[in-house]
Design a protein that fits this description.
The complex is a heterodimer of chains A (81) and B (140). Chain A is α+β, with helices and mostly antiparallel strands. In chain A, 22% of the residues lie in helices and 25% in strands. Chain B is built from 2 helices and 7 strands; from the N terminus they run βββαββαββ. In chain B, helix 1 runs antiparallel to helix 2. Classes of the chains: A alpha+beta (81), B alpha+beta (140). Chains A and B meet through helix 1 of A and strand 3, helix 1, helix 2 and strand 6 of B.
């Protein structure tokens, strides 16, 4: 299955233009998607402890299963206002 | 307007867009404006900011903050507008207005909304420095 990956701020700059989507086995979890992201873009690894991952616009737990067509978003610490 | 007005706008926020909170029953109005400063917190000369947002979730978070403010402070009308894109020093980056029958609830709700927006809304800010470099800055 395929999930779309987007990222914001410094994480977007790390991710682009190398990656837009991930091919994962059916039923893969958010944690497994992250492992694959780290493998493809090793520079992301340093940010794991500070970022949050959203699935289809809502914060996701690492044990949440994904389905084909999902959107994962990598969210660094926010800076609005 | 309904009891809330929530917006992400391209470029600087026109602070008049939050004036709509006042009406005949809500005469205590508090407005907060966040304006782009010429110095970063660590003292570097700043020429501008670039904001980006995860837009739908950001607007949803604004709505959640408004609902929470109403539960906490009662009958309050709120407006939140945040800029995305490139801003210069002096531009309004964020405007929050709260209106209530009396001033105490309006002050409380306005403070709550801007504090929670800064803590939670999926919006990011890049500072552009006079010497030519730039850095993403979080609120942590």
């Amino acid at each position: 299955m395929n999930v779309r990956v987007i990222a914001f701020a410094n994480l977007r700059e790390i991710l682009e233009p190398s990656l837009r989507s991930l091919d994962l086995p059916q039923g893969a979890l958010v944690a497994e998607a992250w492992t694959e992201l780290e493998r493809l873009v090793p520079a992301l690894r340093a940010h794991r402890s500070s970022l949050r991952i959203a699935r289809n616009g809502r914060i996701a737990g690492s044990d949440e299963p994904l389905v084909d067509g999902d959107e994962l978003a990598l969210l660094p610490p926010v800076g609005g206002g | 307007m309904a009891d809330e007005f929530l917006a992400l706008v391209r470029g600087p926020v026109d602070p008049r867009c939050v004036d709509c909170v006042a009406n005949d029953a809500h005469g205590g109005v508090v407005t907060f404006l966040g304006v782009v400063r010429d110095r970063s917190d660590d003292g570097r000369a700043v020429v501008g900011l670039t904001y980006e947002a995860y837009e739908e979730p950001a607007l949803r978070e604004f709505g959640a903050i408004v609902s929470e403010a109403r539960r906490r402070f009662g009958d309050v009308r709120l407006a939140i507008a945040h800029a995305i894109g490139e801003l210069e020093v002096g531009d309004v980056a964020v405007a929050v207005a709260a209106a209530a029958a009396h001033r105490a609830a309006a002050f409380d709700a306005c403070r709550y909304a801007i504090d929670e927006l800064k803590r939670r809304a999926p919006i990011w800010k890049k500072e552009l420095y006079a010497v030519g470099d730039a850095r993403w800055k979080s609120n942590e």
